[in-house]
Design goal:
about 270 residues; mainly alpha; 12 helices; about 80% helix; membrane; transmembrane helix; transmembrane
Length: about 270
C-alpha cells in the first residue's frame, strides 16, 4: 500500500466497512461481538494483502515500462504520486527508482542529491532494507562511473560485493545483484580503458537484453569495447548509431550520437 494512495484508500474503506459490519452484527443479527471478531480480522487482513499486492504490481509495471520505452518523463510523473503515498518501508525503494530515471536522463546532480539524502536504516523490513542497500550501491556506482569518478565507483562496488557475498547463492536478490555487479565491473573497466574480453561480454548482453534501455546500454558499451580491444571503428559506429537512434533523449543516446559523429568524421577524413 506504500506505493499508491488509491490502494491505501481502498484498504481503509474496506476496514471501515468491516468495522461497521462487525458493530452491526450485534445490533442487527444479535450476534456477540466476539463471535464476529474472526470475520472482521479476516476481512481486514485479506484487504491488506490485496491492496499491497495490487500496489506492488502496478509499481513493477511502471518500472518495466521505463525499461521498455525509455520514457523517463512519464515515469517521473507517475512516481511522484508514489512518493506521496510512500511509507518508511517503501520510501527508499521509490526514491532509488527515481534516482535511476535521473541517471538515465543524465541529471547527475539531481541523482546525487537524491541518493545522498536517503536514510537506508529507516525501513523496518529486513528483506526490503537489504534490497535497498544493494540498489543504493548499484545506483551510486552507476553515477560515479558516468561521472568518471572511478575511486568512488570502486568503493560502491566493494560495498555491493559485500552485500552480495552475504546472500545465499539461491537467493533471488543474490542472483539479481551479482549480475548487476558484473555489468558494472565491465562498464568501469571499459571506461578506464582496460582491455579484457569486454566486447564479447557486451555482445552477449546485447543478444540477451529483453528491453530497450538494456539493449541501448549494451550496444553503447559494445561500441566502446570494440574500439578499445579491436579497433573496429566501422562496427563501433554501427552500434553507436543504434544507441543514438534507440534512446535519443537519454544520456547514453546523446553521448552515443556525439561519439558517432566524431567517429564518422574520422572515418571520412
Amino acid at each position: 500500500m506504500g506505493y499508491y494512495r488509491r490502494y491505501l484508500a481502498i484498504y481503509l474503506s474496506v476496514a471501515l466497512a468491516a468495522g461497521l459490519l462487525w458493530a452491526a452484527a450485534e445490533l442487527v443479527w444479535d450476534l456477540p461481538l466476539l463471535f464476529s471478531l474472526p470475520f472482521f480480522v479476516l476481512v481486514v487482513f485479506l484487504a491488506a494483502i490485496f491492496c499491497s499486492a495490487a500496489g506492488m504490481r502496478r509499481y513493477q509495471k511502471m518500472n518495466l515500462r521505463l525499461l521498455q520505452t525509455g520514457d523517463t518523463r512519464a515515469f517521473l510523473q507517475e512516481i511522484s504520486a508514489c512518493e506521496k503515498a510512500a511509507n518508511r518501508n517503501t520510501r527508499n525503494t521509490i526514491l532509488i527508482s527515481k534516482a535511476y530515471a535521473y541517471l538515465l536522463e543524465g541529471r547527475w546532480d539531481a541523482a546525487s542529491a537524491l541518493l545522498s539524502g536517503l536514510d537506508l536504516a529507516s525501513c523496518r523490513q529486513p528483506r526490503a532494507r537489504q534490497n535497498d542497500r544493494c540498489a543504493y550501491s548499484v545506483r551510486c556506482a552507476g553515477l560515479a562511473i558516468n561521472c568518471d569518478q572511478y575511486p568512488a565507483a570502486e568503493q560502491h562496488l566493494a560495498a555491493l560485493r559485500r552485500e552480495v557475498a552475504a546472500l545465499k547463492s539461491t537467493d533471488t536478490l543474490q542472483v539479481h545483484y551479482a549480475k548487476m555487479l558484473q555489468d558494472l565491473d565491465q562498464m568501469l573497466a571499459v571506461r578506464r580503458g582496460e582491455a579484457g574480453g569486454h566486447a564479447a561480454y557486451f555482445r552477449n548482453q546485447l543478444e540477451m537484453a529483453g528491453d530497450l534501455v538494456s539493449r541501448a546500454g549494451a550496444a553503447y558499451y559494445l561500441a566502446r569495447a570494440l574500439l578499445l580491444e579491436e579497433g573496429d571503428r566501422e562496427k563501433a559506429l554501427e552500434y553507436f548509431d543504434y544507441t543514438a537512434a534507440a534512446v535519443p533523449r537519454l544520456a547514453v543516446g546523446r553521448d552515443a550520437a556525439q561519439r558517432a559523429a566524431a567517429l564518422r568524421g574520422a572515418l571520412s577524413g
